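Q: Sequence in, structure out?
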Amino acid sequence: MIADILREADIKMANAVEYTKEEFAAIRTGRAHPAIFAKLTADYYGSPTPLQQLATFHVQDARVVLITPYDKSSTASIEKSIRNSDLGVNPSNDGTTIRVTLPELTEERRKEYIKLARHKAEDARISVRGTRRTAKEALDKMVKDKEVGEDEVVRAEKQLDATTRKHVDEIDEVLKHKEAELLEV
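A: Exactly. Output:
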């Protein structure tokens, strides 16, 4: 019973870390990377479809991404989706491919991205701590219902705290790496 609670908490905390890594991948760092388009969708025959399902992405150099749609009729909606996004880019279309040139990041924009990354990291920490609270409440309920002894729960709480600390440290490490990446010129 206790092992199940701890295992479930660990899985949820690990998922929060993974989600944070995915969110960080979508934050632009000045270098071209297909992951910056991961959250974008385009209208494809009346339904919003992720760009990753509509086209291939090829990084031509540090600041240029070539997007080749699988279906040429979707080129205009892909281009419109990129233009209307918060990426701040203006794609050009030659009929078969879409070329996206990423502008150099200004100091102000870098600071905004760092602030955004810190906010996402804090959201992840809150999620991890919320998972810890839920698990601790379940353990306390087990003691209250006399299903397990207090000694077992004390050991489980120490294990839960160690797991929480491990995942929060992992989030901090990912944030530190992303900040260094953003500050790199």
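The first strand starts at residue 41 and ends at 44.
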